[in-house]
Amino acid sequence: MFKMFKRVKTIMSSELNALLDKAEDPVKMLDQFMRDMAEDIREVETAVAKQMANEKMLYKKYTDAEKLVEKREAQAVKALEAGNEDLARRALEDKKLHDSQAQTLKESWERAKADAADLKAKLQDMKNEYQEMDLKRDSLKARAEAAKTKTKINRSMSAIGSDASKQGFERMEEKVLRYEAEAETSEDLRSENRSLDDEFEALETKSDVDLELEELKKKLGK
Length: 222
Known about the structure:
Elements: H1 2-14, H2 16-22, H3 26-81, H4 85-160, H5 163-192, H6 196-204, H7 208-220
Helix pairs in contact: 1-3, 1-4, 3-4
């Protein structure tokens, strides 16, 4: 399991760029890597817990066997003091049996203890590496988002400065100028199309000043 975890870490650290080039969404890929690593950690935690439980069980069996050895030796002494040599011999035979079992259990316990310590050390290494990759993931996600934004801005700027955009802008400007020219032309045509009656009516219409001027002329006899 730890080798699998190391393989995932290697992919993230040494081959990440190549994978991200092929991925549709680098952020999702990074999150998936972290989920895989977290799952590996949970599996190793389960294995460590089982190994620690096995170590404790073996240690208890070993200490129980040691206590029984001490008990049989004390019983043998007690039997001899009571003058019962046969009972003392049987106690020593059982002591020998349990002493052999105690030595076997001790060896098993020591191996289990070493394995548990090794697994705990590897689990800690995995957690440290996970934290390191988590920080790197955050940095890469920020870089990916910045790159996306920059690409979007560059594309927008490129579109604004492209020949097609300029031509479109100039076409719209020309259209506005044409609208303005058409408006001025329609105004001129309206002025030219005034009827003769309108013009004569304008001539015949006298202002208040003209009427007052005629009255003054009459008074002066002119």
